[in-house]
Amino acid sequence: RVSTTNQVEEGYSIDEQKDKLSSYCDIKDWNVYKVYTDGGFSGSNTDRPALESLIKDAKKRKFDTVLVYKLDRLSRSQKDTLHLIEDVFIKNGIEFLSLQENFDTSTPFGKAMIGLLSVFAQLE
């Protein structure tokens, strides 16, 4: 998901995000199940086709890790971010990783970091 022209100019275009995520997966020797892209949709709500597909696939446990370029690419709402990570991903045994932010969702400190980062994403 890309929100502004600024992000495109600063290297946050959807294609550049995909390239960086793909390179990371290659380095880790991970197989990519699917790339979920919501171009042109606001991250301020969860009514996005690819996000809805991601949630359905997560509940069916079709993958074991969700990797995003940056936490705010998942959602700009703190409530939605925490719900997705805790109630959809972690509940279904799915690890959540962000390429730009370093946190471990399995630790209390990592969960606190997600809370803090999602507050800042909401303010942007």
From TrEMBL:
InterPro entries in alphabetical order: Resolv_N, Resolvase-like_N_sf, SSR_resolvase
SUPFAM superfamilies: Resolvase-like
Domain Resolvase/invertase-type recombinase catalytic: start-end pairs: 1-124
Top-rank taxon, per record: Bacteria
CDD domains reported for this sequence: SR_ResInv
SMART domains, A to Z: Resolvase
GO molecular function: DNA binding; DNA strand exchange activity
Name of the protein in its database record: Recombinase family protein
